[in-house]
Protein 1
Amino acid sequence: METPGHAEKGTAAMIYLHIFWAFFVANLLGYGGGPSTIPLIQNEVVQHYGWMTNKEFGDLLAMANVLPGPIATKMGGYVGYEVGGVLGAVLALLATIGPSAIAVILLFTFANRFKDALQIQWMTRSVQPVIAVLLAVLAYQFLLSAFEEMGWIHLILLGAGSYFAMERMKIHPAIVIVASLFYGGFFLSHI
Amino acid sequence: MTAALWPLAASSKGGLSMRAYLDLCIGFARTGVTGYGGGPSIIPLIEYEAVKKYKWMNADEFGDTLALANTLPGPIATKMAAYIGFKVKGSIGALVAIVAHILPSSIAMMVLLGFLYSFRNSPVVKGMVAGVSPVIGVMLAVLAFQFLAKSRKTMGTKWMGVFAVLAFLLLQIISLHPGIVIGLFLSGAFILSTYKIKKADGWKRPVMQKRERQL
């Protein structure tokens, strides 16, 4: 799993290889569609390759949630472009969608027999707690860095407010994110 | 990739060929642009295009395709686009459907973030970026809770707890790469479920065993 070259600037070819590898691994392991790949992408992009900070990753996630469309390809396209230009974006997108797209096409003649197999059910289930832990750790990191940055009053207002808006009032996440951008623009521009 | 897939599609040239590509393009661009909240929320929109509007497949086939796509890792919406595109127009159809589905939102993402970051030093933009991180924290926490609730439903509170604690220890205390942890869990689940089937059925179902080996 480990590839050489933590965040160090390799040759151009190495960077493209790293981009492909990062998104290939994250999406191959992300059972359960887009959201389950978020912590895996974060692990590759922030922890492993150091292409962006956790904070930048948070901005990326926020913008990806404001825009429509699949989340994994929006993240992949942007990070690939930032790190390796247009070719980087193309490679990240290929790595995100290529393997599973080809697998679906190859399997489609006989895979209908697999879908009820106990192995598939158990494998899918076994990954869910891992994803939950990864997401919880990420959530903790974001809330902690927000606390350090803005103090607990703004954090509680924004955190509790957005929870209430999204989960109780069922307001669309995109609207909540845009509202929090305005809140930050007005009340947090001094920090 | 394109070169390797090209010959497969060459057989399906016809009078209505361009029309079918255009339909795929429009159908999947529309679902990509209107579907909010990532892959799973887009499924009903894809069903509308594929079953009701363009009649690429019937509702049963769509259900089967969805179940099949769920057995594989990776984003769900692009797997659906790949399969439906392939069914309608071969490999090129699959390519057209996927590109139409992901390209508009990927480009919009670059424009929007580029715009935000070009004012990176403005205090207002700094405040905006700060304001969004608690919301992202809450969204991730809710997502984590949903995954836990889902696994509590499918494997019971006790096993969910055991798996979650085990995952936490491996990820945070021993600091294993998530890929290795997921690989361990996947192979553990595969071995245990295979063992369970073998134990329940003895050696009476050769078809099932063959399937296991293919997996």
Protein 2
Amino acid sequence: MTDADLLEMYRTMVLSRTLDQRIWQMNRQGRAAIVASAQGHEAAQVGAIRALDPERDRFYIYYRELTTMLALGITPLELLLGFLAKDGEPLSGARQFPLHGAIDRSRRDIVSFSNVVATQLLQAVGVALADKMRGEKRVTVAYFGDGASSMGETHEAMNFASIHHLPVIFFCENNKYATSVPLSRQMNIESIAARADGYGMPGIEIDGFDPVAVYEAVGAAAIRALSGDGPTLVEAVVERFLPHTSDDDDTRYRPPEELEDIRKFDPIPAMEKLLRSSGALDDALDDEIKGSAQKIVNQATEDAENAPFPEPHDFYEQVYAPGSPGDQS
Amino acid sequence: MPEITVIEAVRAALREEMERDPTVFMLGEDIGKRGGVFLATDGLIEQFGEERVIDTPLAEASIGGIALGAAVNGMRPVAEIEFADFIWPAVNQIIGEAARVRYGTHGRRTAPLVLRVPYGGGVRGGLFHSQSIEVAFAHQPGLKVVAPATPYDAKGLLKSAIRDDDPVIFLEHKRTYRLVKGDVPDGEYTVPIGVAEVKRAGSDVTVVSYGLVLHYCLEAAATLAEEGIDVEVVDLRTLRPLDTDTVLASVRKTSKAMIVHEDTKAGGIGGEIAAVIAEYAFEDLDAPVMRVAGPEVPAMPFSPLLEAEFMPSPEKIAAAIRKLAAY
């Protein structure tokens, strides 16, 4: 991985953090209804996309994927339109929560149907099955958290994908909490990746604060998938810097010292330090990266605030296919 | 025109659609070498191979979720749920998600999948091989729910379901599989989703039904004809979206309406039909709308006399129609 690659990842992480902070702030001001913050997940998300091909591959994401979206080329303005439920939002016509719906397939195959955890894993397996049946060489990435790892559908998805050697990467962002429930109350094992053995596929646990380690693990999983050897479970261990969502209060269940501890290591300053020590980043460039992120987010905020809400003119459309029985459009 | 059974009609539709369209494939439990527990897929793995006739693990959420993913990615999966009673683990994927794909993505993705579901009782199936599950699915906008009663309709509607661009729950009444025979043309035809059919024209009473008990209604109508009661029998065929026009036209003609189904009465399809009639044909009615339906117990018992107590029969239906005709 070159300095240029590292710098590009750093730039995306900085942009994601800046945007994430802005959305959180807008929620506190009553301007954005709901946010599930990606703060603490940025390195894992940016490292994974670096190892994949945004045009070739398919991304079945879940709700905490702000950095993934940016890394795949969805713009801060588009994302802000979603958080403000405004017209022009690119996923669901603002029918759904932010980051839910699907991007136009001609642009990117990014899908996030629902808030129900783990359903996307079986869907991703079906997507990969279709690609395999047609002989298309693509990777489908199924994103999930430690919370979704407890769902029966997670088991079923991994089992089926492994039986049929499907080109799937199960990418778990383990932030150690299912809303308020800590890992010790979710499982009696230390590693989610260790479960891969039970399905006859490789499982890799990596430091999700290290984007290069994530890049390498996902890259190896992608090679395995494209060679027809089957799925891989990649577990990136991260921290959730903020509550589960803007409607949650993590001080009710996380001890104060823990909340202080998790912030002691932040992957973005760590990346900055790494780039400075290698000479790839100096004050001027860092100022440009951070200043540019601020400027992009400020402009996007203004544009999103000025955008209209969608009118209910198409409220009855897309229930059924146009012209089909039951269509009310 | 050869006479075939419902199960033969289903199998013929599957074979012809698999031959016609390479994106059609099947998945389900025991559908491969076993040919399905009812033999609906008998011979298909030999013709199309295990790539297109996929035996799944015993996992209904997988069947629903993988069918959904494949459908979103350009295929036309036809999934079999072995018995309707086992469908509940797939509900998360089908009602929760497949029904909302088109709406929740603003039309950017669609889910053209078919879930074939053998349902219903009168087969000594007991609590967990007899269930009627149609209401759970018929309640959900975004899904289409089809319930044919005859071989002709089963073949034509299954072909339409496979070609449909929305998720379709295709209900096959198990007791009709080998019991009901009928003429089915050799050539290509389809039956449209969302269109009911008057299976017997009459002038005194309208009886609306579907599935196995539609045949019991026809038997009752034949008996009553000898007594001078002329019964019109409407086969809904599709439970969502409902063809209310056909129902209302019939009620406006006869002025008396009854709905018959095997599913339990409260909250059943019959309630919706009765409400539609009350809302749009109230002034045409000469009597209250009546229902003959399964009793308010949680399931159909196993022992034969208990099972018979649950099931609507031609006799029970005829008795109810006599009352309505005399009102």
